[in-house]
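Table S2 (text version). Query chain:
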Amino acid sequence: MTQDLIEVEGLRLWSHVGVLEQERRDGQWFELDFSLGIDLLEAGRGDDLAASLDYSVGIRALQTLSRTVRCLTIEHYSEQILDQLERCYGPVPIRLRLSKCRAPIPGFGGRVSVRRQRRWR
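Corresponding structure-token output:
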């Protein structure tokens, strides 16, 4: 198991996700952090992008996904994100934290997040 990571933090995505109809209709901001597990030794030594994972590919794919997703739960949205990252990079270890930036709960100004992972031990 590799200990090297490519980490993307603070990816802001406008998505139509939420239990309330207005959340799905109007959309809202989400913030995503994700990590990809990969051995970076060869890429580091040889300055070779082909020996790494191009994070811009995943970012663009997730930006496209965010414009089309329509669902009730942040859990389902996170599953779609995991699927999309897997389509981009294949079966690599993936971790993510997906946060709803402003949950529509009176008197609550914080964030609500889910943490998910695939192929991580």
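Notes on Table S2: The CA atoms of residues 4 and 41 lie 8 Å apart. The mean pLDDT is 95.
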